[in-house]
Structures are given as structure tokens and as C-alpha cells.
Amino acid sequence: MNFPPDFVWGVATSAYQIEGAATEDGRGPSIWDSFCRVPGAIADASDGSQACEHYQRWAQDLDLVADLGVDAYRFSVSWPRVRPTGSGAWNSKGLDFYERLVDGLLARGIKPYLTLNHWDLPQALQDQGGWAQRDTVHRFVEYAQGVQALLGDRLSSITTHNEPWVIAMLGHDSGIFAPGLKRRATAMQVSHHLLLSHGLALQALRADGSRCELGIVLNLSPVQPASASPADVQKASLEDGMLLRWYMDPLFHARYPQDVLEHLGADAPQVRAGDMEAMATPMDFLGLNYYTRAVVSAEGPWDVKRGGRELTEMGWEVYPEGLTQLLLRLHQDYRLPPMYVTENGGAFKDQLSQGRVADAARTRYLTQHIAAVQEAMRQGVCMAGYMVWSLLDNFEWASGYDKRFGIVHVDYDTQQRTLKDSGRWYRDFLQRQRAARHAAEAALTGD
Ligand code: PNW
């Protein structure tokens, strides 16, 4: 497989899933700290208070990232670590941590890709209504400006939000994620405020002289009808509207999709003059997290199809051609900046035995999805990079620690890290990519 020489290869993590140190050095509580205390919310009744102890072990973890030979590391900042109540005083010890992390990446020759909001909203802001409140939009813009003022000169990339659909729908409609609310109208207002805060943050960061690539990360899937029946086809089209067009249309066409607005009726969000234009502020990149396709039928809620295909431990179907389909469709329907796959990977039954994790299924998953990206590029889609989810086994939200996505195994008793076979494969793959890159450059310069 040959990719362009400037294609960015990476690995990804997020703050609440790996850092631990939930009460250290002045970090304030986040909505995930609170949600984890709700009985039954987390499958194994765990939380992120210790996780991978990355807050203490960051230097060792960055050595692992460097050993892989990636170009970039995608991580997120914990908002309540750097501004404990989301407004008011900043926490210098929290800021120091991210400064050490970013400098540590640069010292190892790795590009820092920073995400501002990977779900861990300060609880104090939730107490005032959270993302359903328009004020939170302005608190987020201040947060973005504060982080850029400190780190912007050393970052390659800033993502405003990770997966606004998940925050809105899983957090405020089904309620299976923090803050655990179950009201459609609230969820849609939250999605509006996330998109608005994204656009206003981009404007503010640019006004402050940003030198980073700026964008957003969406979780998208092709949404397919379970059968050719008109009812299933119609349902699939509506779910595609809720998942993909609800975010892509405002970001790129400054409008919400009409069919979804009509379906929502009174649950549609309150929109003020100027909001739609702000949301469509041009981006430097679009990030996509891809795991599987969605197959929907008129009767049931949407589901992953269990059509004999391999399922991961999450119950998600392994469906790499869906990634090619998705990228081609986006390329056809929108005028896009370069895209990254900012997350892709799987939870599999890993067994650590004699210092080795023989996770052939994960290696196969990654190989097939990287090939799917390449196929889209061959058909003309502009792709800037690909990142594996995840560097480490970590706190998998409502699933707790039982589901492991890492290419590095974590023993939660000893905090020992072990590179899995998939991690070795990724390292070797990247080495071959680099060798091909050098050969191509040598051919160009004629030596
Ligand atoms: C993403 N869904 O979450 C997140 O960005 C990661 O933090 C997470 O660990 C990873 O995927 C694996 O789950 C999602 O149900 C969680 O559609 C759930 C869904 C999608 C994305």
C-alpha cells in the first residue's frame, strides 16, 4: 500500500479515558465523574478516576507513541483540569500538564493533534444547564482561546468537538452517556449549541492569529435499510438525516436538512439570526471516526446487522467497505477540506499470555480499513491522515474497562503496558511506509 508522503499516521486517546488523577492538582469534577456514580450507568460499575494513570505515566506513554513511529498523536484536554468550573479561574497546574505533554511530543518528533471537547464538560457548567444552555457556547469559546494562547504556537491541529452526535443523542436523548438526560428537544438544542460553539470558536481562534489546522470530528456511518421495503428505506433516510446530514449540512451548507426539521417538529432547536452562518465557518479539515455501518428497519431502533459478518466485542459489525462508501458519498455531496480518519479500531477478545497479546483480529481490522481509505483515495477523495483508536486499552465509557480497543495492552493491577501484536504490525507497517517515502524522494532528487 502506498500513500502520499505527507499523509499523517497517528494514534488517538482522550483525557477522561486514560488520565485518571480525577482530583489531583486542582482538577474540577466533570459530568463523567458524576455519571459514573449513577447506579447501573457503567457496565462494570467502574469510573475514570484512575484509568491508565496517564497523568503520572505520560512520559513513558509518549515513548510508546514514539516507538510506534507515528507522525501524530491525537489527545484531548480535560476542560475541568484547566478551568475547574468552566468559568472563572484557570488552573495553572492543569495547564502545566498539557504543556509538558505537548513539549514531550515535540521533543520526540511527534505532531500534537489536540481535541478541546472529548465529552468531559465541567460539572459546574452542567449544573447551570450544560450544553442545553446558550451560555455554555461562550464558555467554550473562552476555553478554546485559553488553550490556544498557551499551546497554539506548538500544536499542529485543534479539533473543537469530538462526535457532537454522541454528546447530543447518547447524552441527552437515550441517556446512556453523561449527563444521562432523556429528552429529544434538549438533545437537539445541545447539537445546535455544539455546532454554534464550534463555528464561533474557529472565528475567535483565527482572530487570535491561529497557526493550527482547525476542524471538527464527526462519528459517521453509512446508514442502510434492512430491506428494500419503502418503510425501511424511509427510516434509513431519516436516520441518515439525524446522524450525518444534521451535522454536515450546517457545517458546509449553512442549513439544517428540511426533512429532519419536519420530522422533529416542536423538538427542533431554537435558532437565532446569524447562527447558521457562524456554524458554516470554513474549516481546515474534517475528522471522521469510523467503526461500522448502521442498518435500520422501520420497526426497531437502529441496529448493526448480524448478517454472518464478524462482530467486534462491542457487537459492531466489521464492515470496512462502509468506510470507502462513506468517504465517496461525502466527497460527492459536499465541498470538503482534506479529511482525516481520526478514529478507527475495534474491541476484540485479547488474551495477555507470556508477555504477548496475539490479536490477529485487530490487525486484520486495521489492515482492511486502511485499504478502504486507500480505495477511496484511488477514486479521488482527498485524505490527509489516519489514526488508530486507541493507543492504550482504556475506560470505554458505559462499557467500563472490559472492552479493550488498545494496540497497547494495559494491566490495570500493575499499570504495565505491553505492545500487542497489532501494535507491532502497525509499527512495521509505518516503517515500510517511511521506506517507500524515502525511496520516492530519492528517485525524485536522482540519488
Ligand atoms: C467513540 N455509538 O465513541 C469515541 O470517540 C471514543 O472515545 C470511544 O472510545 C470509541 O468511539 C469507541 O467506542 C463512540 O454508539 C461511542 O454510535 C459510541 C458510538 C459511536 C462512537
TrEMBL record:
InterPro entries: GH, GH_1_N_CS, Glyco_hydro_1, Glyco_hydro_1_beta-glucosidase. Signal peptide: none annotated. It is an enzyme of class 3 (hydrolase). Keywords: Carbohydrate metabolism, Cellulose degradation, Glycosidase, Hydrolase, Polysaccharide degradation. GO terms for molecular function: beta-glucosidase activity. Its EC number is 3.2.1.21. It comes from the Bacteria. It catalyses: Hydrolysis of terminal, non-reducing beta-D-glucosyl residues with release of beta-D-glucose. The keyword Hydrolase applies. Belongs to the glycosyl hydrolase 1 family. This is Beta-glucosidase.
